[in-house]
Design a protein that fits this description.
Low-confidence stretches: none
Distance between the termini: 99 Å
Radius of gyration: 41 Å
Mean pLDDT: 85
Number of strands: 0
Shape: rod-shaped
Order of helices and strands: HHH
Strand content: under 5%
Number of helices: 3
Length: about 120
């Protein structure tokens, strides 16, 4: 709904007031009571229309926030996958370095035992 339409719905028209202008029959209490009831209904409808417009704006803001949250969630998911892959590679490298180190130490120990028992 455009701003012009909202303003047209919420502002009072002189034509609407002319339709309910019963000032020439003010002497009749029933007509006065009806006029007051009609005015109350019109005021209530204006308040209701303002609330509907406000709800529409709140829903638009909520929709925008939910879209932003969805985009953020997708980005988080992608980054989490990348981080998991990175950590897996890091763990593999650490295990490889540990294996190389332990293998080197084992080879050195075997070399020293071989020299010690076969002597010079």
């Amino acid at each position: 709904m455009s701003d012009v339409e909202k303003a047209a719905l919420l502002c009072s028209d002189d034509d609407d007031d002319k339709i309910f202008d019963l000032s020439k029959n003010r002497s009749d209490p029933k007509i006065n009571r009806l006029q007051n009831q009609v005015s109350d209904v019109i005021d209530g409808m204006k308040v209701n229309m303002e609330k509907v417009v406000e709800r529409g704006q709140n829903l638009e803001a909520l929709n925008e926030r939910s879209e932003n949250l969805s985009v953020s969630g997708d980005l988080f998911s992608k980054r989490a996958r990348n981080m998991r892959k990175h950590m897996w590679l890091r763990t593999c490298r650490a295990r490889m370095y540990l294996g190389i180190t332990l293998g080197s130490i084992l080879i050195l120990i075997m070399f020293f035992f071989y020299r010690a028992f076969n002597g010079k």
